[in-house]
Amino acid sequence: IQTHFTPKLLAGKKILITAGATMEMLDPVRGITNISSGKMGFALAKVATQMGAEVTLVHGHATAVRPEVSHAYFAGTANAMYQSVMQHIADQDVFIAIAAVADYSPLVSAEQKIKKSEESLTIQLKRNKDILADVAKLPNPPYCVGFAAETEHVLQHARQKRQDKNIPLIVANQANLALGSDNNSVTLIDDSGEYALETADKTSIAAKILSHLHSQLN
Ligand code: CTP
Ligand code: CA
Questions:
Q1: What does the record list as coiled-coil region(s) (predicted)?
Q2: What pTM, to 2 d.p., does this model score?
C-alpha cells in the first residue's frame, strides 16, 4: 500500500539549489559563519527530487543530513559557492537560493594559525558578490527564488529584496524562529500576491513552496 504520494509536478525540470552556511576563513582553522543548519534547503532538495526534478545541490556547512540528489557539490565559502553556481547554472530551469551566504569575507586569510597577542584585534572584511542577484542578471536567467530571513520588518525587507535582486519569487521568514529549527513559518511573495503559509515542519513547507513554484512555471 502506498501511503505517501508525491505528484511528479517537477518532472523534466532542472533545479539548482544553494543551501547551508558559508564559512569565511580567517586562518586554516577558523572562520566567520552563521547559524544556518541547511535543514530548509535540504528539505527543498529532497522534495524537489521526489517531485521528479533533476536537482543540483551546491551546499556549504550544514548540520542536517544531506539528501540523495542528482548532483551535489560542497562549497564552503561565499566565493567557492559563487564559482560552483556559475559553473552549473547554464541549462537550469529554476534557481533556488536559500544558502546563508556571508556578505563579507576577510581581506586576507592567514596562511598559518593566527597567534594571540594584543588585547584587541581588528579584522578587515570585504563585500562578497551576490550570487542570486548575479544569476538573475544572466542573459537568459532561470526562474529565480530567493529567501529573506529577517529579524524585523520581515515583509518590508523581503519585498525590497525581491525588487532589488529583480527576482520573481521571494520567501520571507522570521530568521530567529527559522534558523536551526525543524519548523518554519513563511510568506511567499510574487506578482500574483502574498501567501502566508501556516507554521509547519520544513518538509511540508518545502512541498508547499515547490507546488506554488510549479504553478508559476506553467
Ligand atoms: N544571497 C546570495 N549571495 C549572497 C548573499 C545572499 O545568493 N552573497 C541570497 C540568499 O541565498 C538569499 C537572498 O540572497 O536567497 C537574500 O539573502 P539575505 O542575506 O537575506 O539578503 P542580502 O541581499 O544579503 O541583504 P542583507 O543581508 O543586507 O539583509
Ligand atoms: Ca546577507
A1: none
A2: 0.97
**AA letter at 76:** G
Dist. CA 142–CA 42, nearest whole Å: 20
Per DSSP bridges, beta strands 94-97 and 143-150 are parallel
Phi, psi of 2 (to 5 degrees): -85, 115
- Residue 25 and residue 108: Cα distance in Å, rounded? 9
30 vs 178, residue with greater confidence = 30
| Nearest CA among 63, 58, 61 for reference residue 33 | 61
Q: 165 labelled as ligand-binding?
A: yes
pLDDT at 29: 97
What are the phi and psi torsion angles at 208 (to 5°)?
A: -70, -40
What is the separation of C-alpha 117 from the centre of its chain, rounded to a whole number of angstroms?
37
Ligand 1 pocket, CB under 6 A: 18, 78, 97-99, 101, 103, 128, 130-132, 146-149, 161
Per the CB < 8 A criterion, the answer to whether 187 and 169 are in contact is: no
Assembly ipTM = 0.99
- Residues labelled catalytic: 34
